[in-house]
User: Fold these one by one.
Assistant:
Number 1:
Amino acid sequence: MPVRSECCCPGGARGRGAAASLVPPPPINTAQPGVATSLLYSGAKFRGQQRSKGNAYEVEVVMQHVDMENSYLCGYLKIKGLTEEYPTLTTFFEGEIISKKHPFLTRKWDADEDVDRKHWGKFQAFYQYAKTFNSDDFDYEDLKNGDYVFMRWKVKNSL
């Protein structure tokens, strides 16, 4: 799933650096461990809706750990109204950030190229990569500079 990282700078100014996405901008010494340089960081919370088969569910995601260098993240997904038995369901997930280390092709969990193409094709942000995502010379550096972070999550257990 792609997550858009929109610029929230006054006047809509855009830059290629992560500092352009944060208000106020982070300090100059943001190379320190633990200093957030994007909207995706350990402790970040996101709220929205998940749509499935004509239904919409309120969701909240809390990122427990985000490691951009290793293209890894994990956290909790809370879904409201999924079933009457469990009005609120919380699950723990681990995820891969799409990168050279974790390409668009899953190559596990019984997913093949057709499954991946169908899944990623649901997201408009993927359209520009649809013809080249399985290429040996795909430019994953281009993803780092884009407006979206693509990732796949795998639910590990319900809490």
Number 2:
Amino acid sequence: MELSRRTFSALAGTTALGFALSGSGGETTRAYASHSVPTGPAPGAPAADRARHKVGYDKYSLLVDGRRLVLWSGEMHPFRLPSPSLWRDILQKMRAHGFNAVSVYVAWNYHSPGPGRYDFTGVRDLDLFLRTAAETGLYVILRPGPYINAEVDGGGFPGWLTATAGRARTSDPTYLSYVDEWLTEVNAIAARHLFTKGRGTVLLYQIENEYDAFVDDPLGRDYMSHLYKKVRADGIDVPLFHNDKGRNGHWTPGSFNTAGEERGWLYGFDGYPLPGEVPPDWGDFGEG
């Protein structure tokens, strides 16, 4: 598997992920998108309440059941703390400090020791982590890559992938066949914890990470389109997004084929605002 320098690039320091929201939120928000901007209290702490929920957005924020929600999220990666008995303590402390969400990288190399082999048991029990997050009252932003960067070896790609044919992070069919296997495993777990279904608190789902290669090339556009369609085919119905490595406008709404789903995609980017700074260009990105 050919890995470019971009595959191993890393950004040091703490990352602030910003969402630039388009002006309409799709099917789940049309019922109230034409009304005045929602006011009043934000939704309460989420839970696996077995109730159906609508998750959408307008140009200002996410909307949960028609109520405005601003996410305050911190990062918590189970592979960095391979001790499930400690997960609840960390998540409770996040909640106590005022966070209402946790952002979770899922590292392919942590769960796949070889081709066709996957382990989600013991210290790798993603199902347990997501269940604990819901019990703690935190929304979940799930980020399974397939490439996550995260300052880990190969951006989370398993070592065995480098010995396979194909070109990583492109629409190469060989590479995508391995990606599909990985996402099938992860998405089967994620689907059991979707907030929209009342099964858990997974509210957002990230595709790829800091992908700035082949932005204007079919190798990249077809790759992103494939990931999008795969995730949707696996039953993940929450808003999807990508994290641009800066305010570059890469992978904004309309930049690749989403199989006719025009408003299920958010544009996200890394930002590093200093105290007292106001980011200069939060607002609308992409077509429209």
Number 3:
Amino acid sequence: MEFRVLGPVGAWRGDVEVALDGAKQRTVLAALLLAEGRTVPDTRLCELLWGERPPATFAAQLYNYVSRLRKYLGAGVDIVRQWSGYQIRIGTARLDLDDFERLAEAGRESLHGGRHAEAAERLHAAMSLWRGPALSNVTERLAATESHRMAELRMAVLESRIEADLLLGRHVRLVPEITQLVAEHPLHEGLRGQLMTALVRCDRQADALATYHEGRRALADELGVDPGPLLTEAYRAILAGPSAPAPAVVAEPSWHGVRPAMLPPGVGDFAGRDEELGRLIRALTAAPAARQSVAVITGMAGVGKSTLALHAAHLSRATFPDGQLYADLGGARGNAVEPYDVLGWFLRSLGHAESTIPKGLDERVRLYRSQLAGRRLLVMLDGTADYAQVAPLLPGDPGCQVVVTSRLRMPELTGATSIEVGTLNREQALALLGRIIGADRVAEEADAADRIVELCGRLSLGVRVTGSRLLARPHWSLGYLADRLADERYRLDELRLGSMDVRERLDSSYHQLADLGQLALRRLALLRAPAFPSWCTAEVLGVSRHAGEEVGENLVDARLLEIVESDGGRRQRFRFHDLVRVFAREKADQADRMLVAGAGALSGVGS
């Protein structure tokens, strides 16, 4: 069996293509293959297939796509269910992308070792695996997510292949090919430098100089910048004549002078959080010698950690003249991104061509930290899953500042400035609602506005969703929406609009729990008490008090339970945020309900 993604996505058994049903099924297959053995969450597959508005039957449809894939691919390939997602295990089958990367790496090693003919053979073999634009028959969402990265991989190997051919004296036949490539990619300095080299070796110095000037004009018109130092050096070498031959290959510009600006836009309706915002801005703008180099913003799902961090980052940009790096690490969606991939994004943003980025994680970390040395740069790591994901992304230079957002407290980041973000107070929640729909509209129905923010549990995301829904439906009164929210059975349905989805955020926290944690959450939510003692966890699980306390603490760490009373840890009382309780009750099954109802020890809880 062979899988192909370097062109139209497909599966082949020998010389016969396996019949697949259409773009959506091919999208599922491609997403699983590109995950390289990692689990792809249902939420991610749903987004790739249907975007922000999936059908009500999306879970059944996704199951059908996977079921038919299993049937078509046969026993040699396993698609296994892992938590809330799927993982593909291809066994002895081949993936053309793996073959491409293996041949490309071998070709680069031969090139660096001076074995030019061997390098050219391997790099030509790698390029021959491409059958057109990658992922050309999948949904637009997957193509938009992955095609640019794969095109960059192809371009990096193509440059290495051209370099090997130039070193073998094949410049005459290269000129038409590189001329076409430069026409297609006029701002690509590496290709333009290689064309200049080939033209000079064909004794076409005038054409080589014209190629440089065309590139200089294109860079100035499109980007407002001058050619990079190595392209300029190649130009000067041509002017100097044969005594100073042009270099065989012109590399991409170095990182010097590159100022990444990766921050997403902030929100225009930021409200409240004056204390937390002040603390964070003071931490970011303090003199390097007086500040902690890491700030950690923590809190439950949907509480507004990212909004606060981005607002402060934009307000503090002038403090970081060398730019800002940003990565959504996927922890908030239960789809954690590997540090290896994030380092690749960062190094490319710092001016590195794909061919210059190391293949090993440790080498990427060393290069990344070397590039940041001596610079004042802001690094924002949003939606962090755990410390292991953050550690390789921390700069070594104290002049750089890191902002981490996470549901976890990250005690491993010793000395960090820690900012806890709680739910909004009543005034802040009403102010946020007013910023979205207008203060006059809130004042006209003040009682209904109060009900809305309380039914949202004063959770920032919940208030934003309700405000956006009222903005989209100006014919709705606030009282009408408050009545819709009042029914717990449908409350989380009401708190969803596009990519803003309270249930989805809570679901990602839930699925990161161990089995006992999920069980405890569902059963504790069925207790008819606003708060309950910690021993209830052991009771609903049927485990020892010690084991139950550990599960309870894990739920607190995951921000799915809150501590309302504690005598130093020996005796504690917990409570749920209202929306977490609603969510957990949705998850509870009949067995959970029967156990809690029949547990005599729980009958007096809360009394």
